[in-house]
Amino acid sequence: MARKPLRSQRSYGKHDRDGFIHRSWIKATGLPDHVFDGRPIIGIANTWSELVTCQVALRELAGFVKRGVWEAGGVPIEFPAMSLPETQMRPTAMLFRNLLAMEVEESIRANPIDGVVLLGACDKTTPGLLMGAASVDLPAIFLSGGPMLSGKFEGRDIGSGTDVWRFSEMVRAGEMSLDEFLSAEAGMSRSAGSCNTMGTASTMASLTEALGIALPNNAALPAVDSRRRVLAHLTGNRIVQLVKEDVKPSDILTRQAFENAILMHAAIGGSTNAVVHLLALAGRVGVPLTMEDFDVLAREVPLLVNLMPSGRYLMEDFCYAGGAPAVAKELGALYRRDVVTVSGQTQGQIADQARVWNRDVIGTVEQPIGPSSGVWVLRGNLCPDGAILKPSAATPSLLTHRGRAVVFEDIEDYHARIDDPGLDADETSILVLKGCGPKGYPGMPEVGNMALPRKVLEKGITDMVRISDARMSGTAYGTVILHVAPEAEAGGPLALVQTGDEIAFDGPNRRLDLLVDDAELAKRRAAWETARKPSLYDRGWYRLYIETVQQADKGVDLDFLVGKSTREVTRESH
Question: Do 273 and 410 belong together in one domain?
């Protein structure tokens, strides 16, 4: 079969005025004549930033990718992509995931490259990079910056995020001093890298392996481990071959690949944020995927990985125990073993080479770490388009609960009243937070795991049922019902809930219902419509986002970005 002409040669292979312009200006970077002789031009989309610990090492890692590209006969050209530091950006990094995806899509389309290496790590950079690359459908491969080392405090391991939430509640309950709390800061984040728990960053890195869009061991190798550099080198090798074979994201990101991602997500006790990210990515490649797929496909999958927040260990331990390939091995016949990956091997071949080195960290289907995991997808008159809950992070006794709603109209209302001694709430109440969905915040922040009222914490209670249209950090835990759709700002029934209403939550039967009759709800809706105020966000990205963002059950992508663009740009720039 004749090799497909390289896309980059339309710019660098022409011996005319336009070719002169394209070659001459990029030669100023130090490239010699002979690299334009038909070698693949490999873009490296780098989300490096000093604002985010997850990606602060990507500048160095890009050098090892380049080494691998050169060795394989390609020409690496690095370019920047927007960085999304989860712990720094306001109002939430999720507001900008789609902006990153748009930037990556247009950067790939507009520039004369033949394939792309996607360098990311923090929560929203991984899906944003993948969404952008999938929309163009040039050969692509993902490389994570890797997790940070295990946290250390007072002689024990502590985990990113998970122990922050726990320590914070202990301080508010009077069980930990403020000095102790503050001294934990230095030990929690001891190196470059993403969260060392099975938060969203580690979840999405694991799912890139399950999707087949990254090389084996992408997820668990620590950011500072020399083997991460070797993996970067091999990733550079591999993208050149993918270009030569014209292996595109659409060849890798099939329905079966997404099914593997859902199975992996359940087995590792992954972040609930993966639901909206996989739904959005599937929308870009035209793969049919629904929220129910996460519930139905994962029902046979127990929790196999003993990592915070669903367990006790951290990503370093996961690496040394065998990582994502070992989980795939333990999933056995449940896994879609014939699915091809960017490595050139099938998922089955990768799994067959794996070993489990620590059974305390990675269990078996017969002797799992915990029962069926994944997410539950709820339906009912409070969430007609769905809501989700992570059962492995919840209190079993609360998975069926009926209680009185204590409603907070927005995040400011919550902060103002949650510790008020006069708050009419006890451990049987259900905390309800509105105005935190895609449009309402805007951006759907990680505030769904609301801290409990101080007076409840002081009684020794550590969990309550909480409901919102928000997300929660993948490092968080609790009986937290999230992603209620439609959101309150879009006129969903959540907007109509009032303090004192009864809510029935039946997890095993996947139900969430507001026990208020239709006539009363109709009256409330009329009043709500009358009282609505215009949006405060009337310009720039905020306005575009609010006007076009889809709801949680659709992945929170912008409606006009669903589907592919094209890799072809026919008009010359001069």
Answer: no
